[in-house]
Design brief:
The chain is mainly alpha-helical. It is 52% helix and 0% strand. It has 9 helices and no strands.
Length: 224
């Protein structure tokens, strides 16, 4: 039986994941410590997402059955789902896909089942681009770009890069401070892109006082 979707209160070297772990420690202090798209949950208020937990530092529920991950994730990413809620859903999905980041930063790394689950979800997200039109297709592009970039931050495959897709989304949607926030995060680690400062400035300029965007900017870029 499918698990219940709940609401929340809240370049390559050997061994690759050992290098990934070192990169975490040496990452620029643009955002909070750790990989920015994985280590720090996004505040989404009472919006629905994959099951979360206040008792786990990753903000996920260890009891969740990831056999439900693909249908649960796709069901949550509707055309009405706000960008930041999409970001948190995809962040949790990446953690569940890698079984709670087991092997993160170690030589053992993720296993074949983790890789198949993560890349299988990515493929399903890509398939949705072909079937969508207009604004819904742009959101489908965002999901692929952001999930690709988030998977890179798990260390599952350092060759993954979703930044260019997120830039394309911004061009299609026009000025959008929430997409700029996603781009600010994607451009901050492990090596800060030259575009990072502009993405962050535009996200801040467009954030309304008291909004989820303003809350997340304050929590993720408090020292910038």
């Amino acid at each position: 039986m499918r698990s219940k979707i709940v609401s929340t209160r809240q370049r390559r070297s050997a061994p690759p994941l050992l290098a990934f772990g070192l990169a975490v420690l040496l990452a620029p202090a643009t955002a909070l410590a750790g990989t920015p798209l994985i280590c720090h949950p996004y505040a989404i208020g009472a919006a629905k997402s994959l099951p979360g937990s206040d008792g786990d530092w990753k903000g996920v529920n260890p009891a969740y059955d990831r056999k439900n991950l693909v249908p649960d994730t796709l069901a949550l990413l509707t055309p009405e789902t706000p960008i930041i809620v999409r970001m948190e859903t995809l962040r949790r999905a990446a953690i569940y896909a890698t079984a709670g980041l087991r092997g993160w930063g170690t030589q053992a790394g993720v296993n074949a089942d983790d890789r198949a689950t993560a890349l299988g979800l990515l493929e399903k997200l890509r398939d949705r681009i072909k079937d969508a039109r207009g604004p819904a297709q742009t959101l489908a592009l965002f999901d692929v770009g952001f999930f690709t970039e988030t998977l890179r931050h798990t260390g599952i495959d350092q060759s993954l890069d979703g930044y260019a897709l997120l830039v394309k989304v911004l061009k299609l949607r026009g000025p959008d401070p929430e997409v700029e926030f996603a781009l600010a995060l994607a451009s901050s680690w492990p090596n800060r892109r030259k575009e990072h400062v502009d993405h962050l400035a535009r996200a801040r300029a467009g954030a309304q006082k008291g909004s989820l965007l303003a809350t997340n900017l304050a929590s993720h870029f408090s020292g910038s």
